[in-house]
Automatic annotation (TrEMBL):
<dbReference type="GO" id="GO:0015937">
    <property type="term" value="P:coenzyme A biosynthetic process"/>
</dbReference>
<dbReference type="GO" id="GO:0003824">
    <property type="term" value="F:catalytic activity"/>
</dbReference>
<dbReference type="InterPro" id="IPR035929">
    <property type="entry name" value="CoaB-like_sf"/>
</dbReference>
<feature type="region of interest" description="Disordered">
    <location>
        <begin position="1"/>
        <end position="21"/>
    </location>
</feature>
<protein>
    <submittedName>
        <fullName>DFP-domain-containing protein</fullName>
    </submittedName>
</protein>
<feature type="compositionally biased region" description="Polar residues">
    <location>
        <begin position="1"/>
        <end position="14"/>
    </location>
</feature>
Length: 339
């Protein structure tokens, strides 16, 4: 049978882009994790979180990145764990992690949570109650081995890990869930168009790469005179493959980020129809911590908002938004979010 264009794009991508060095180690960990929780009849969710980078050079000095801090993914992972799931947390290295996110990546040092008493380090009383709650949840999850943390940096590492883990989850059938909150680059530099060494700004040191004579394609990121020219290629759309090829029975929740409110719902609906996911959650860059729109075949369009008085900086878990926030129809006027 002839390969479909999606299968062809997949095979081209994965034969051109080398796997990450830690892929086999990740696969071994994921296989053991999935099989253990499958034997115990537990639901397993793969949460992706944080942004992918697009390296411009093989020995990478420069890369393109995006805004994502991993707040949505890390927060949602905690709620899945609270609801009994086993979680594979595939995140951008050094982005926020479940539980430790409460004490990292903010302007306070973790040392501010402690003080010295009789030559020993103790937790400051003012922090103790909150920290105890987080510590209890974390310890329970750790003792039960319900959280597996894997990491990626580049778009290619992300896609390799996603594909391998999704295929390992296939035997779970409908007990597998994919919660795709990572901000994944739409464009990249293919390996065969990537310069090896640091791109030089000084014309005297410009590289003369591109080997194959007249057939050589120009590097995707290169200097032209004193300008830096970046000419990226589209990342093949693998979301359909997730449904059709890698984990056809799993529940797939994907996110759609936009900055223009007038196209958000349309874009989410487009993704829903095109990729046949169970649910697409739309959000806007500026308001993503307070409101999201659920778009599904079953329920159409449903806005979920955190009430004004509960809007704190760290709130970002859709799983908890579902449980406790106002649920209003699309006709409701969003509250001002930039107070
Ligand atoms: O990581 P974060 O909490 O800062 O942001 C979360 C988010 C906006 C990346 C996520 O909710 C999302 O929309 N992910 C998909 C992005 C996309 O359209 O590719």
């Amino acid at each position: 049978m002839a390969a479909s264009s999606a299968q062809q794009a997949e095979s081209d991508y994965f034969s051109n882009e080398p796997p990450p060095k830690d892929l086999q180690a990740n696969v071994t960990l994921a296989r053991e994790f999935i099989s253990r929780h499958n034997d115990e009849g537990r639901r397993i969710v793969l949460v992706t979180s944080g942004g992918t980078t697009v390296p411009l050079e093989t020995h990478t000095v420069r890369y393109i990145d995006n805004f994502s801090a991993g707040t949505r993914g890390a927060t949602s992972a905690e709620y899945f764990l609270q609801h009994g799931y086993a979680v594979i947390f595939l995140h951008r290295q050094f982005s926020l992690l479940p539980y430790s996110r409460h004490y990292s990546h903010n302007t306070r040092s973790f040392l501010d949570y402690m003080r010295e008493e009789n030559g020993r380090v103790v937790v400051d009383e003012r922090q103790s109650a909150d920290m105890l709650e987080v510590l209890r949840q974390y310890t329970q999850v750790k003792n039960q081995g319900r959280l597996l943390i894997l990491s990626f940096v580049t778009i290619t590492e992300y896609l390799w890990d996603l594909r391998e883990v999704a295929q390992l989850m296939r035997p779970l059938g409908p007990r597998a869930m994919f919660y795709l909150a990572a901000a994944v680059s739409d464009f990249f530099v293919p390996r065969d168009r990537m310069v090896e060494h640091k791109i030089q700004s000084n014309e005297e040191f410009h590289q003369t790469e591109g080997g194959d004579g007249a057939n050589a394609r120009a590097p995707a990121a290169r200097t032209d005179g004193r300008k830096l020219v970046i000419d990226l290629e589209p990342v093949p759309k693998f979301l359909q493959q997730l449904v059709d090829g890698w984990a056809p029975e799993g529940m797939i929740v994907s996110f759609k980020l936009e900055t223009d409110p007038s196209i958000l719902v349309r874009k989410a609906q487009y993704s829903l129809n095109k990729y046949s996911h169970t649910l697409v959650i739309g959000n806007l860059l500026l308001t993503r911590k307070w409101e999201v729109v659920f778009v599904s075949a079953l329920e159409g369009e449903k806005w979920i908002r955190v009430p004004q008085h509960r809007r704190t900086k760290s709130f970002s878990g859709v799983a908890s938004l579902v449980g406790s926030a106002d649920q209003s129809s699309k006709d409701d006027e969003p509250e001002s979010l930039l107070e």
